Amino acid sequence: MPSIEQLQKLLQAEPDDTFLLYALAQEQAKSGNLGDAIATYDRVIALDPGHAYAWFHRARAQEQAGSPAAAAESLRAGLRAAQATGDEKAAGEITGYLDDLGH
User: Fold this and answer.
1) Which pLDDT belongs to residue 30?
2) Which residues neighbour 102 within 8 Å (Cβ) at sequence distance 6 or greater?
3) pTM exceeding the 0.85 threshold for the entire prediction
């Protein structure tokens, strides 16, 4: 996986590339930059509201940041997105995560 710096450089040429933005958010979350990760997931979602895994991982970052209620809201939105696009795998994973959160 490219580094945060490499992804940011690639995004200079393609600032609205949801694949690159999602990869950046994943790396930010992995490195503990949860606020940056959430903001970057928000950019992905703004460009592609049906990106169920952006919702899923946004929820993970929110939960890790101490906001389980916000995480549950993201998961519910992600579930709607997964159902709207027919992504049964994502819907199942999101439902399982919601169950784990107790929401």
Assistant:
1) 97
2) none
3) yes
